[in-house]
Design a protein that fits this description.
By secondary structure, the chain is mostly helical. The chain contains seven helices and no strands. Helix 4 packs antiparallel against helix 7, helix 5 packs parallel to helix 7 and helix 6 runs antiparallel to helix 7. The two termini are 32 Å apart.
């Protein structure tokens, strides 16, 4: 927070001093700037906003489960050591970090929707078997299970960020 405070002040200073873009100034002069941009966004783009909400929920929940909850689940419920639980999570997230750009490139080639559907379906189909694999008590199997969930999450992630911008 102490590091972020000066950055926030600098950002506020810059925002207060910088001029708006010529396009925004033109829209403002012609009276085309919405009085309530958020309300206008929901009025004109309700479908896109609802899709975006669903997309974000899946992304957020899947990341939270793999990055945060699984460490606790492995150590507290399944009695893995803290080192084993954190190692499994770290390996999983390393694989995710490598696969995301590949999935993003794939989504550029074949389209966002197929990659996102494949990722979401993979998460749904693999959730139960992965959790069952973790209960066997073997650290390597727990890593394998987490990676098995991480790969479809990475596929989803690789396409979702561009999809959100396009929406």
């Amino acid at each position: 927070f102490l590091i972020a405070l000066p950055l926030g002040i600098a950002g506020l200073y810059l925002r207060m001093r910088l001029d708006d873009t010529p396009e925004f100034i033109r829209l403002e002069r012609s009276g085309e700037v919405a009085a309530s941009p958020l309300r206008e966004t929901f009025r004109t783009g309700r479908r896109a906003m609802l899709i975006l909400g669903g997309v974000i929920v899946l992304k957020g929940v899947a990341h939270w489960v793999l990055q945060t909850y699984m460490v606790s689940h492995l150590s507290r419920t399944l009695h893995f050591s803290a080192a084993e639980a954190f190692t499994a999570s770290t390996i999983c997230m390393a694989v995710v970090a490598v696969v995301i750009p590949v999935a993003g490139l794939l989504s550029d080639k074949v389209g966002r929707k197929p990659v996102m559907i494949l990722g979401a379906a993979g998460l749904i189909v693999l959730a139960w078997p992965a959790l069952a694999l973790m209960t066997l008590g073997n650290a390597m199997l727990a890593v394998l299970a987490m990676v098995a969930l991480g790969i479809p999450l990475a596929a989803y992630d690789g396409a979702v960020n561009a999809s959100m911008a396009e929406l």
